[in-house]
Amino acid sequence: MDNQLTKPEILIQRIALIFVAIVLAVLLGVLAVRISKHSDPYVKTVLSLTGDPIQGSAIFQINCAGCHGLQADGRVGPSLKGVSKHKSRYGLIFQVISGETPPMPKFQPSTQEMADLLSYLEKI
Q: I need a surface site. Which of 7, 14, 66, 69 has the fewest CB within 10 A?
């Protein structure tokens, strides 16, 4: 019996290899993001600090309440009630400082202010 693959079998193998390559690329991308976020000096410093939720509330009222509402229950921007339950601390930091979610402006508070804001967001 001949051990040559048929055209459908070759196609299946190629699709499987492409699938494996895509999965590996995604996993490597996720790993690269995890490594880079933990090596970012701003993020590392923020995560090392203890935030004050009262100060965080004041920062929120000044910078965020115009869009997210005085009680963080949404207005132009979405409600942020319970946001820390579905977004990581890094995700929250990135959301605030990146400016990648229009119309939310890029905003980079000091590391202590960001720690305070995180502490507030974790309380609401």
A: 7
pLDDT, tens digit, 9 for 90 and up, residues 91-124 = 999 999 998 888 888 888 999 999 999 999 999 9
Give the domain ranges of the chain. Answer: 10-39, 41-123
Distance CA 26, CA 32 (A): 10
| pLDDT tens sequence across 62-85 | 999 999 999 999 989 999 999 999
Secondary structure tally for the chain: helices H, strands E: 6, 0
Residue 82 per-residue DSSP state:
T
Q: How far apart are CA 4 and CA 123, in angstroms?
A: 64
- Give the C-alpha separation, 51 to 44, whole Å: 14
- CATH superfamily to which 41-123 belongs: Cytochrome c-like domain (1.10.760.10)
- Respond yes or no on whether the N-terminal peptide bond of residue 103 is cis (omega within 30° of 0): yes
Element (H, E) at 90: helix 89-98
